[in-house]
Amino acid sequence: MARPRVLVSDKLSETAVQIFRDRGVDVDYLPDLGKDKEKLARIIGDYDGLAIRSATKVTEKLLAGADRLKVVARAGIGVDNVDIPAASKKGVIVMNTPFGNSVTTAEHAIALMFALARQIPEANGSTHAGKWEKNRFMGVELFNKTLGVIGAGNIGGIVCDRAVGLHMKVIAYDPFLSEERAKTLGVTKVELDELLARADFITLHVPLTDKTRNILSRENLAKTKKGVRIINCARGGLLDEAALKDALDAGHVAGAALDVFEVEPAVDNVLFNHPNVVVTPHLGASTTEAQENVALQVAEQMSDYLLTGA
Ligand code: MLT
């Protein structure tokens, strides 16, 4: 049997490349190709597998020229950059690595919650600028505050666990969360409207689907408690960015910390430069540990599939 060929078109730990080679899979590592649609379309026909992160968009158009392709694997969780119906129509399997970066992403959400509560990024900028504005930065404690977790799956579940450790009261909205699991996590399962009305902090941990798009819509933002702080390390598109800006300007929402945006890369956004908004460039999964985990998982899963069909 001819050796399968895999293309890695986004930045992935070199561990993946080594595993492919060790397993007998030929691999081309072109980490900037995801940004070059034309070149990717020109060469995709030469490969049996495509390993990606978020930059590569696997569209119907790209798949049309991918005649050898058997598998697309996302080193990460969200597969919203892959046209799954188009892939299925072509018989191309789509894989992800649902566990490798969960702890890392949950930790980023907790870090953003602290950053918001104590205005750390603003205070950092001001202190570096020699201003010593000790009276400007009055924070709030997390202790005893209510955290509303929307989506208590892999990542949301870890956020619940860490927040319980911080002695927050944790309430979760997740139609798939069993009462038993909620009890194990130490959280109270609630409906969305109750979460919106009660939470001092809201953090999002759901995939972007037709059901979850705009879950924090203008209407739902209006149902939140005055002074709420919102964290999104999941996906852009889960909240209405213009409505969030209006709610921040009106002083209804006290702060927001966003790692993900409706349009990425986000080089311009309605929420940029707002004094009560903390932003990071989709860093949720960016730790050495998580990137090693997902690279290893992607390479093993793809090699298994390409070499044995399993
Ligand atoms: C994910 O879906 O796992 C993350 O968005 C991963 C990433 O940033 O690559």
From TrEMBL:
It comes from the Bacteria. Its EC number is 1.1.1.95. Residues 110-284 form the D-isomer specific 2-hydroxyacid dehydrogenase NAD-binding domain. Keywords: Amino-acid biosynthesis, NAD, Oxidoreductase, Serine biosynthesis. GO terms for biological process: L-serine biosynthetic process. GO terms for molecular function: NAD binding; phosphoglycerate dehydrogenase activity. It is an enzyme of class 1 (oxidoreductase). Transmembrane segments: none annotated. Residues 6-310 form the D-isomer specific 2-hydroxyacid dehydrogenase catalytic domain. Pathway: Amino-acid biosynthesis; L-serine biosynthesis; L-serine from 3-phospho-D-glycerate: step 1/3. The keyword NAD applies. The keyword Repressor does not apply. It catalyses: (2R)-3-phosphoglycerate + NAD(+) = 3-phosphooxypyruvate + NADH + H(+). Belongs to the D-isomer specific 2-hydroxyacid dehydrogenase family. This is D-3-phosphoglycerate dehydrogenase.
